[in-house]
Specification:
CATH superfamily of the largest domain: Type II secretion system (T2SS), domain F
Number of domains: 3
Structural class: mainly alpha
Helix content: over 70%
CATH architecture of the largest domain: Up-down Bundle
Number of helices: 16
CATH class of the largest domain: Mainly Alpha
Shape: elongated
Largest sheet: 3 strands, antiparallel
CATH topology of the largest domain: Receptor-associated Protein
Distance between the termini: 96 Å
Order of helices and strands: EEHEHHHHHHHHHHHHHHH
Strand content: 5-15%
Number of strands: 3
Strand order of the largest sheet: 2-1-3
Length: 403
């Protein structure tokens, strides 16, 4: 199907503009007449494919929209009217355009969930499937409220992931910058001072080692830069290869300290997403497929897909989860209890609450651990350089005093 822009007049004489999908112009005419509109202008839209960075819609925009939409639906307003109001209220032009398109397709007879699926960068598979479940079950307002809560908790998890990964990276960058300044500028300045004082041949071993390291750094700085750039490009290239990406993801989960935090985040995300889907009436096989795609880690995704396959063969969830060696035994046992009692969705949400609190504690402990390591590392490096540079000065001062 192609997309056409149209202008048409309603029976009241009002001019309406919008877009519509059809096989050809005749199909557009038929659809407009079915909507009791008299077409005056129809033109096929030219689709230009190119690079697009993100959707331009923030999680905050999505959460606000979802909460307000749920309130309006609960108050009995029609979907089209809700979309019209929210489209006019949002300050984000990108999101306003998305809502306008969703409204147009709902007016043309599409379901709300199908209209949302036209914008996968804004409304992901989880969002659209939950909305579809809400439409089918007649509980769209309840589903949207759950979606808003889920989105808020997901934002919190994303911040914790950034806190677990970005903070150590920033520390390493700062350490490298300080080391580069010492080797490239500070030590050469002291070297010139020693040369002017004629003490180059009588320097202590520690000072000679530090100056040699500085000379090597300055003499090979271009090679060091090229190596770092090449290494970065190689890592970025290899990360796009599924087999190598899986190795990275497995390594992340087994890193000291950080790996434990990432594993807890994965458990919290898995249980929260699956619990939300199941409590909203999404079938378990469909729910697991969606959860796997939003796992954020290939090892975890493979574990969930393995569990889904075993469930499709008639097995329960707890056994396959334990076989994956991804999820802690306590989580598997609680899932088993949830299956036996018929309250799996409630149990999954309880596990998510517990692990989200655990992630808070773990990220705080990680930050507390890295800060002293950073101070010791930077302080130790600067201290060694200072001692190495001032040792000859103390030696010269002692000789001058003795004379």
């Amino acid at each position: 199907m192609a997309e056409f822009a149209y202008e048409a007049r309603a029976r009241t004489g009002e001019l309406k503009k919008g877009t519509i999908e059809a096989d050809d112009e005749d199909g557009v005419m038929n659809k407009l007449r079915a909507m009791q509109l008299s077409p005056t202008k129809v033109k096929k839209k030219i689709s230009i494919k190119g690079f697009k960075l993100g959707s331009g819609v923030s999680i905050k925009d999505l959460v606000t929209f979802t909460r307000l939409f749920a309130t309006m639906i609960d108050a009995g307003l029609p979907i089209v009217q809700c979309l019209d109001i929210l489209q006019g209220q949002t300050e984000n032009r990108n999101f306003s355009g998305v809502l306008k398109d969703v409204k147009a397709h709902v007016e043309q007879g599409a379901t709300f969930s199908d209209a949302l699926r036209r914008h996968p960068k804004v409304f992901d598979a989880l969002y659209c499937n939950l909305v579809q479940a809400g439409e089918t079950g007649g509980i769209l307002d309840t589903i949207l409220s759950r979606l808003a809560v889920y989105a808020e908790k997901n934002v919190k998890l994303q911040r914790q992931v950034r806190g677990a990964l970005v903070y150590p990276s920033v520390v390493l960058v700062i350490f490298a910058a300080v080391l580069g300044i010492l080797l490239g500028w500070v030590i050469p300045s002291f070297k010139n001072i020693f040369k002017d004082l004629g003490a180059e041949d009588e320097l202590p071993k520690l000072t000679q080692m530090v100056i040699a390291a500085s000379e090597f750094f300055i003499g090979h700085i271009l090679m060091v830069f090229i190596f770092l750039v090449a290494a970065s490009v190689a890592v970025a290239w290899s990360y796009k290869r599924p087999n190598i990406k899986r190795i990275y993801h497995k390594m992340f989960l087994h890193l000291p300290v950080i790996g434990n935090v990432l594993r807890k985040i994965a458990v919290a995300r898995f249980t929260r997403t699956l619990g939300t889907l199941l409590s909203s009436g999404v079938p378990i096989l469909d729910a697991l497929d969606i959860v796997a795609k939003t796992a954020g880690n290939l090892v975890v995704e493979e574990g969930i897909q393995y569990t889904r396959q075993k469930i499709s063969e008639g097995k329960n969830m707890a056994g396959p989860l334990l076989e994956t060696n991804v999820f802690p035994p306590m989580v598997v046992q609680m899932v088993g209890v949830g299956e036996q009692t018929g309250a799996l969705d409630a149990m999954l949400n309880k596990i998510a609450d517990f692990y989200e609190d655990e992630v808070d504690v773990a990220v705080g402990a990680l930050t507390s651990l890295i800060e002293p390591v950073m101070m010791v590392g930077l302080g130790g490096t600067v201290g060694v350089v200072l001692i190495a540079m001032y040792l000859p000065i103390f030696s010269l001062a002692g000789k001058i005093k003795a004379q």
